[in-house]
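Deadline looming. Please check this record:
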Amino acid sequence: MNEVLKAIETRRSVRKFLPDMPSKEQIDTVITAGLQAASGKNEQAAMVIAVTNKELRDKISRDNAAIGGWKEGFDPFYGAPVILIVLGRKAFPTYIYDGSLVLGNMMLAAHSLGLANIWIHSAKEEFESADYQALLKDLGIADEWEGIGHLALGFVDGELPAAHPIKENRVFYVE
């Protein structure tokens, strides 16, 4: 089977990660795959912030648990040591779609490298807050950016989940 199709067919969202940090080379490879995603008018109106700093990673986890209404102590990133945050430049009309494609490419690239992952929402709400606007400023990021999503990344603790059956009646041909 074609390797791309195999990755699409076998990738699963993981909700239990080992604390082991992937190599910088692996993380960079995943990010590069994301940045190669298609984008409206080749504007490339999405960016990635790679968080490997445990203190910041844990703050993002606490803030996202609060945004999601989870109990204190719940980790919405399931112990993954890396969070790749995708943002879209709000001035471009396809920024949400472009950022979503970046996330999709990164998910498949990560899986192909043996890295477990899961897309976690709440990045929009996160980057509407003063703390995360300050983070962008500290990183020297100008313009208005909206959080599209987080990719929790690491190594699976256990086995990959089984595939769910594909629901019927989702494809219609007009011939």
Remarks:
- The chain has a mean pLDDT of 96.
